[in-house]
Structures are given as C-alpha cells and as structure tokens.
C-alpha cells in the first residue's frame, strides 16, 4: 500500500454529476463505492468536500450579499454535502464521523484534532465539514490544513481531469500530462492546482498532492495501492 492515511478532497461541483445544481444521487453512490474499495484495503480516510454545487462565497458579492456572510453560507453548503456523503458511506456499512469547523452539535462533532486522529486510528472515515470555519478560505485550504493536522500521507485532489497538463487538454491537442512535478515547477509555470494558500501549506509542510480523475472507476484504489501510476504527483 502506497499510503496509510489519505486526505481526499472532492469539489462540491463534482457532486452535481450531469445536473447544474445540487447533488446527483448516482454520483454520490459512485463515490461511496470508490471510497469503500479503498477502505477495504485498510487505508485510513479523511474527506474534505467543497460546497460549490450549492453556494460559493464569491457568488455572494455579485448578488449583493456581504462577502463574509457569503463565505459562511458557502461553509454551510459544505456541511450539506458532507452529510450527503456521510449518509451514502453509511448506507454501505462504513463507519463515519462528521466533524465541523463551525459548532453544530445537532448534526456533527466539533473539529478536535486529537479526536479526529483517534477516529482515523479506529478505522472511521472522518469527513471535515464547514471548511476551517473562517471566511476568506477555501475547502482546498481546509484539505491542506486538515491533512497536516491529522498527519495524512497525501492530499488526493479528485477532479474531472486525470492530472496536470502542460496546457488545457480540451483546447490544445499537443498538451501533455505530467506524472510528477515539484512544488516549484508548479509555481514557476503557473499551473493551477489549488489556491496559493492551500498550495503553500502543503509545500511548507512537505505534504504531497496528487491530482487525479475521481470519476474514472477504480482510479482511487489503483492510486492508493500504487499498482498503477495515476494522476500527477506534486512533491
Ligand atoms: N469557505 C470559507 N472558508 C473555508 C472553506 C470554505 O469561507 O474554510 C467558503 C468559501 O466561500 C467557498 C465556499 O465556502 O467559496 C465553498 O467552498 P469551495 O468554493 O472551496 O468549494 P469547491 O469549489 O471545492 O466546491
């Protein structure tokens, strides 16, 4: 096994599937099964899910809502997605805990680092909702920060593309996919992987990032078992 403890970052938009808003139940089910395959390999799993399918802080300003207020709305959106994932995982018999960056006793535990680590050690899948609980951050920064805090071996950024390319592969047919990049190469070439806050947190704390296609069946398992090179590794 390549990794013992992973932090899986999923964007809220990924949960939309073919819809243009909200949560697609087929996609949710597919993700639950992918996660189950990895869980069965004995890997400890933490998950951060975005909220972009429901609400985004930057949207707020455009619609006349205060930015900070909008960011909190975005954080609450991530809790909705986290609850949906939790439910899908539990339906398949996995043990989970939802921990929130904003206190919400009725639906989730508050984030307490030691407790999160304990859950992981006991084999529970820990989902981190409500971001880090502060405005002006993103769920990518949440993924980096929580990965460092729980000492995850890697941040796995699940996307719709199978890695980092030299150019946009949808526009430029000569674009090539990288198997590996250093943090410096990503910055020098301006490849967009995560926002800078999230990216430098990983860089400074030596947490590798893998960008991979979460929608390709079996990809997550292949990546974690190391049986095949999947996505782009940034280290
Ligand atoms: N957000 C925030 N602080 C955090 C995490 C998220 O303010 O620690 C807000 C922010 O407004 C963001 C929204 O929640 O736009 C939804 O998260 P994000 O856009 O990162 O979700 P994704 O793009 O991954 O779906």
TrEMBL record:
Residues 4-213 form the Aspartate/glutamate/uridylate kinase domain. The keyword Signal does not apply. The keyword DNA repair does not apply. Keywords: ATP-binding, Cytoplasm, Kinase, Nucleotide-binding, Pyrimidine biosynthesis, Transferase. It is found in: Cytoplasm. GO terms for molecular function: ATP binding; UMP kinase activity. GO terms for biological process: 'de novo' CTP biosynthetic process; UDP biosynthetic process. Its EC number is 2.7.4.22. It catalyses: UMP + ATP = UDP + ADP. Belongs to the UMP kinase family. NCBIfam families: pyrH_bact. Catalyzes the reversible phosphorylation of UMP to UDP. Homohexamer. This is Uridylate kinase.
């Amino acid at each position: 096994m390549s990794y013992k403890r992973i932090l899986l970052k999923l964007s809220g938009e990924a949960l939309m599937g073919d819809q243009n808003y909200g949560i697609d139940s087929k996609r949710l089910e597919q993700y639950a099964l992918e996660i189950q395959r990895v869980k069965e390999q004995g890997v400890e799993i933490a998950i951060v899910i975005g909220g972009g399918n429901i609400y985004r802080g930057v949207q707020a300003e455009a619609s006349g809502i205060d930015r900070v207020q909008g960011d909190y709305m975005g954080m609450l959106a991530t809790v909705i997605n986290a609850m949906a994932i939790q439910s899908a995982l539990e339906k398949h018999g996995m043990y989970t805990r939802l921990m929130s960056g904003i206190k919400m006793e009725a639906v989730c535990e508050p984030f307490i680092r030691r407790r999160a680590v304990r859950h992981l050690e006991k084999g529970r899948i820990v989902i981190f909702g409500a971001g880090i609980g502060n405005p002006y951050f993103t769920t990518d920064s949440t993924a980096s920060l929580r990965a460092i805090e729980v000492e995850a071996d890697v941040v796995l950024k699940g996307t719709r593309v199978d890695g980092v390319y030299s150019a946009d592969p949808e526009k430029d047919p000569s674009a090539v996919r990288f198997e590996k990049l250093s943090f410096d190469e990503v910055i020098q070439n301006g490849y967009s992987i995560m926002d800078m806050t999230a990216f430098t947190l990983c860089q400074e704390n030596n947490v590798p990032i893998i960008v991979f296609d979460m929608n390709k069946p079996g990809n997550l398992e292949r990546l974690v078992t190391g049986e095949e090179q999947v996505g782009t590794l940034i280290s």
